Amino acid sequence: MRLATGVARAKEPAIEDPNIPPGAATETGEAQTEQAVCYRHPGRETNVSCSACGRPICTDCMVYSAVGIKCPECGRLPRSALVRLKPDRAARAIAAALVGGAAMGFGILILQGVGLFFALIIGYLIGIGMGELVLSASGRFRGRTTGAIAIAGCIWAYAFPYLLTLGVDIGSTAQRVTGGAWVAIGAVIACYVAFQRTQ
């Protein structure tokens, strides 16, 4: 008898509230399952939101950071706005730029007669080398501070040959660099590349 009663109760239909309109339950269910859309692309549904401001974002707007996925606006904040370069690491970066710049300057002194085309390549390589030196010495810190140190290191690398030969053979050095035109071009390229690698 108990088993039959239990089965009968299990088959009883759910009682609907007469005060709720027939279509209200369906509309409520749709509202609950409605997906958010990207705030920049309203036609794209998404389940991802910015970890900083909470706005929904699609896959094209995601910016990956150390603290989660962010929207383009929140992800645009530079790392230096949250983390500052420590004085000891800044000192190491400056020392690396000075030593590395002197070594690169000595190489420029040896290769300064290679011509304009190779001067552009040398400037590019010096920019890469200086950028990596500064980044490594600063603990991979990226920002305006490391960029300024890298630029100063490149300028030092191109100034070092002239300081080294000052009062010795500066006349012949000036002749071999063809008026210094390629030196200026190479220095500009080196500074630009070094700055971009440290950002």
Walkthrough of the structure:
The protein has 199 residues and is mainly α. It has two domains: 34-77, no CATH class; 81-197, no CATH class. Helices cover 58% and strands 5% of the residues. The chain has eight helices and four strands; from the N terminus they run ααββββαααααα. The chain has a two-stranded antiparallel sheet with strand order 1-2. A two-stranded antiparallel ribbon has the order 3-4. Helix 5 runs parallel beside helix 8 and helix 6 runs antiparallel to helix 8. The protein is elongated. Mean pLDDT is 77; it is low at 1-11, 23-31, 167-171 and 173-179.
Outline the secondary-structure elements:
Elements: H1 2-10, H2 24-33, E1 36-37, E2 45-46, E3 63-65, E4 68-70, H3 72-75, H4 87-111, H5 116-137, H6 144-164, H7 170-176, H8 181-197
